[in-house]
C-alpha cells in the first residue's frame, strides 16, 4: 500500500480543503444535484469564512496525505514536505466534531479526490476518526449522507446503520436529502 499520513489541518490548509472539495463535488454529486445546487453548497460550506467558522466551533479537519516523490506528478492536491525529505500530496480530508450530541462524534465531511477513491483511503479516514472518538470517550459516530450517494453502501459496509431520512432546506429553494447514519464504538 502507498505510504500515507493523516495530519490535522488548520487555517493554513483551507485552500487545500477547498481545492479537494471543488474537484470532488461535481464528480460525486453531478448526477444527483443540479450544477446550481452544487455551486451554492460549495460557496456556503467551503468559503474561507465558513471553514474558519467551523474550525472556531470545534470542527476538526484532518488531511490524508499520500507519499509522492515525483515532482512532476500532474494530478491535483497540495504538496507537503516531511522532515525526512519525503513529499506527500493531499488526496482527501475528513471533518468531525466531538460531542455534536453528548457522547457522539459527528463526521461532517469526508471527501477524496476522484482518482483516489476505491483505494481504501476512506476506510483509513473513518478508522482515524473512530480512534480519536474512542480516546475522547465517545460512544458513537454519526453522519449524514445524500440518500442517492453511492457512499451509503460504503458506510453500511463499515458498520453504520441508517437511522432515517432527514431533509433540510438550505436556501435558494434547495434541499439536502440525507440518510442519518450511526455506528456504535
UniProtKB/TrEMBL annotation:
<dbReference type="InterPro" id="IPR050680">
    <property type="entry name" value="YpeA/RimI_acetyltransf"/>
</dbReference>
<feature type="domain" description="N-acetyltransferase">
    <location>
        <begin position="4"/>
        <end position="185"/>
    </location>
</feature>
<keyword id="KW-0012">Acyltransferase</keyword>
<protein>
    <submittedName>
        <fullName>GNAT family N-acetyltransferase</fullName>
    </submittedName>
</protein>
<dbReference type="InterPro" id="IPR000182">
    <property type="entry name" value="GNAT_dom"/>
</dbReference>
<keyword id="KW-0808">Transferase</keyword>
<dbReference type="InterPro" id="IPR016181">
    <property type="entry name" value="Acyl_CoA_acyltransferase"/>
</dbReference>
<dbReference type="Pfam" id="PF00583">
    <property type="entry name" value="Acetyltransf_1"/>
</dbReference>
<dbReference type="GO" id="GO:0016747">
    <property type="term" value="F:acyltransferase activity, transferring groups other than amino-acyl groups"/>
</dbReference>
Amino acid at each position: 500500500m502507498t505510504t500515507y499520513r493523516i495530519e490535522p489541518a488548520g487555517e493554513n490548509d483551507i485552500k487545500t480543503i477547498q481545492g479537494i472539495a471543488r474537484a470532488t463535488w461535481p464528480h460525486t454529486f453531478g448526477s444527483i444535484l443540479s450544477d446550481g445546487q452544487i455551486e451554492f453548497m460549495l460557496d456556503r460550506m467551503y468559503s474561507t469564512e465558513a471553514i474558519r467558522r467551523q474550525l472556531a466551533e470545534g470542527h476538526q479537519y484532518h488531511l490524508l496525505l499520500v507519499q509522492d516523490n515525483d515532482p512532476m506528478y500532474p494530478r491535483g492536491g497540495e504538496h507537503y514536505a516531511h522532515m525526512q525529505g519525503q513529499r506527500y500530496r493531499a488526496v482527501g480530508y475528513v471533518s468531525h466534531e466531538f460531542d455534536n450530541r453528548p457522547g457522539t462524534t459527528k463526521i461532517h465531511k469526508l471527501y477524496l479526490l476522484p482518482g483516489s477513491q476505491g483505494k481504501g483511503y476512506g476506510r483509513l479516514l473513518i478508522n482515524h476518526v473512530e480512534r480519536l472518538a474512542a480516546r475522547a470517550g465517545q460512544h458513537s459516530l454519526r453522519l449524514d449522507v445524500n440518500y442517492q450517494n453511492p457512499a451509503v453502501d460504503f458506510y453500511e459496509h463499515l458498520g453504520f446503520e441508517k437511522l432515517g431520512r432527514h431533509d433540510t432546506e438550505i436556501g435558494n429553494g434547495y434541499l439536502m436529502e440525507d440518510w442519518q447514519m450511526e455506528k456504535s464504538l
